[in-house]
């Protein structure tokens, strides 16, 4: 029988960026907050021996244990979904900090177009630009409404960047710290993009260019350009993460504590409110009930959606009827790219997760789509993340993949190869959604989340168009051999592509087409908030973290208001 604990004002399910932001802001306001983290504690001190590519990048030391919980996947409803047995297409974080520990640090703001995509697309191109199978909708808030919260997140994280992107939304303040180093490799991209008439700018980075103290008094170190960022923690405390910013800010108030090894398996609901959550101690198997005035789901996209589904809160999306919203509008990202082989050697082994140069000339609606068979686009970047030896074996397409010629070409091209990639926006489609698997369960007896997803015609058209544009830039950079990425056909859950999953718990102004309102308050339970990239009605041409962070700060304000007034906030 589950043991009932003392009630708290706010409980967060997950303690990464979202859980940390909610905890810090609510605890500073005097609310008693408890974070439930199914993983273990960790901090900068745990990363002193982090430069182990095999342990962290190949064997995924920091990631979710799929032997205990995974998802099932299928391309369409006619297929049987099967469990994802190894991490591949995306990497699910676990332990304190979540994916905010092993991220690269790219910190963009979604474009003004993203927030009003349906309205703006129809005004410019008409209502039939996309077929009705694409479930396009506005977010319910505008960029200008969210801008103060973007600013707050960037100041908390100390983001390094430059305000020179002509396509970005207006900023109330400059970046907190200057951009990272313009290396010779980045200058090569900058010169080529500029000569083609594009507008390159330094990528906004959470790998900081200089030491910084944020408004809460937390210190973030300066990046050492060691090349061990994504899939790794930072031993210098120079890659902004929840463990060195929002979590200690919450802790020092005395109003916040974390329960580790606490895997939440159900949100408890009574009437139009939730009463708390039920969780399992993953070490002892004991069950506990944590009562709370406010429950905030701050776990990963898929875990947030799954918890609502198993708790029977909200109506599951039905692709046959179009009814229901839970699990709807799942979106991934489209990743056009090109590899270039050069004659000269370059220091490709040095870098940082968000050391890069970007253009937005083909992102959002920055370019005319009138004669194109897709909408939106991608940010296009050359990033210098630091090529590590196990996963880096660049060879031209005419070289065999084994033997003496392979070895010779690998050594020759290791320091002579560059890649340019795009992060393409995925538009929601009626056949791409999340649901509960009818057959498979996790280690705690809870049904697995089932993902039904495939690339669409929109995705394939965008990928081809952007690949051609990227190849033009690589040629302008002087590559002797330019190798475009292969066209996309069916989505495969391997190999790794991006961890930027969105949708499933989408936000909006109407319960008929959204799970939560614009404050991320659940339509069916006024004291339940759901925070994460699952709130995005569609994916964008950027990494989602900056936009999630802004939404989290706005929701933290809403929770404080709710704790005083109660009721719906809209």
TrEMBL record:
Query: Where do the Glucose-methanol-choline oxidoreductase N-terminal domain residues begin and end?
Result: 218-323
**Domain of life of the organism encoding this protein:** Bacteria
A GO MF term: oxidoreductase activity, acting on CH-OH group of donors
Keywords of this protein's UniProt record, alphabetized? FAD, Flavoprotein, Oxidoreductase
Q: Which InterPro entries match?
A: FAD/NAD-bd_sf, GMC_OxRdtase_N, GMC_OxRtase_C
Q: Which SUPFAM superfamilies match?
A: FAD-linked reductases, C-terminal domain, FAD/NAD(P)-binding domain
The record places domain Glucose-methanol-choline oxidoreductase C-terminal at 428-552
Q: Where does this protein have coiled-coil stretches?
A: none
Disordered: annotated segments? 161-180
Q: Which family does it belong to?
A: Belongs to the GMC oxidoreductase family.
The name this protein carries in UniProt is: GMC family oxidoreductase
- Native source species: Sporosarcina luteola
Q: Species lineage, top-down? A: Bacteria, Bacillati, Bacillota, Bacilli, Bacillales
């Amino acid at each position: 029988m589950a043991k009932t604990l003392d009630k708290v004002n706010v409980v967060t399910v997950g303690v990464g960026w979202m859980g940390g932001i909610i905890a810090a802001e609510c605890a500073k306001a005097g609310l008693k907050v408890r974070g439930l983290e199914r993983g273990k504690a960790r901090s900068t001190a745990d990363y002193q021996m982090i430069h182990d590519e095999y342990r962290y990048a190949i064997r995924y030391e920091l990631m979710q244990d799929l032997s205990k919980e995974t998802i099932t996947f299928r391309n369409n409803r006619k297929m049987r979904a099967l469990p994802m047995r190894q991490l591949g297409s995306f990497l699910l974080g676990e332990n304190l900090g979540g994916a905010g520990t092993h991220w690269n640090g790219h910190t963009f703001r979604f474009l003004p177009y993203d927030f009003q995509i349906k309205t703006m697309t129809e005004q410019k191109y008409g209502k039939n630009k996309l077929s009705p199978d694409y479930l396009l909708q506005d977010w319910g808030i505008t960029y200008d409404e969210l801008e103060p919260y973007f600013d707050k997140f960037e100041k908390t994280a100390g983001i390094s960047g430059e305000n020179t992107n002509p396509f970005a939304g207006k900023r109330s303040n400059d970046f907190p710290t200057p951009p990272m180093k313009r290396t010779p490799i980045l200058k090569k991209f900058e010169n080529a993009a500029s000569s083609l008439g594009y507008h390159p700018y330094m990528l906004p980075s959470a790998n900081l260019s200089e030491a910084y103290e944020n408004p809460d008094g937390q210190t973030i170190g300066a990046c050492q350009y060691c090349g061990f960022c994504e899939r790794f923690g930072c031993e210098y405390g120079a890659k902004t993460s929840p463990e060195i910013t929002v979590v200690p800010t919450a802790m020092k108030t005395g109003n916040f504590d974390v329960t580790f090894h606490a895997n939440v398996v159900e949100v408890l609901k009574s009437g139009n409110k939730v009463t708390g959550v039920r969780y399992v101690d993953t070490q002892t198997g004991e069950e506990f009930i944590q009562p709370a005035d406010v429950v905030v789901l701050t776990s990963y996209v898929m875990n947030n959606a799954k918890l609502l589904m198993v708790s029977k809160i909200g109506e599951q999306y039905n692709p046959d009827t179009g009814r229901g919203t839970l699990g709807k509008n799942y979106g991934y990202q489209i990743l056009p790219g090109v590899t270039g082989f050069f004659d000269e050697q370059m220091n490709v082994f040095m870098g940082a997760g968000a050391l890069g140069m970007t253009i937005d000339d083909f992102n959002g609606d920055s370019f005319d789509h009138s004669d194109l068979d897709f909408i939106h686009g991608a940010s296009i970047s050359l990033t210098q993340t630091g090529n590590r030896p196990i996963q880096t074996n660049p060879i031209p397409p005419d070289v065999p993949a084994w033997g003496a010629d392979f070895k010779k070409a690998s050594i020759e091209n290791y320091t002579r190869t560059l890649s340019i990639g795009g992060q393409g926006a995925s538009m929601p489609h009626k056949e791409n959604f999340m649901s509960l698997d009818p057959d498979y369960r996790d280690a705690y007896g809870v049904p697995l989340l089932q993902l039904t997803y495939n690339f669409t015609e929109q995705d394939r058209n965008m990928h081809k168009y952007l690949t051609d544009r990227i190849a033009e830039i690589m040629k302008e950079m002087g590559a002797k051999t330019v190798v475009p990425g292969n066209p996309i056909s069916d989505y495969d859950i391997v190999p790794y592509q991006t961890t930027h999953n969105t949708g499933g718990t989408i936000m909006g102004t109407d319960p008929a087409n959204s799970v939560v309102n614009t404050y991320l308050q659940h339509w069916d339970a006024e004291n339940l908030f759901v925070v994460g990239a699952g709130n995005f009605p569609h994916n964008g041409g950027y990494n989602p973290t900056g936009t999630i962070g802004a939404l989290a700060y706005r929701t933290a304000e809403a929770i404080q208001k709710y704790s005083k007034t109660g009721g719906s906030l809209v």
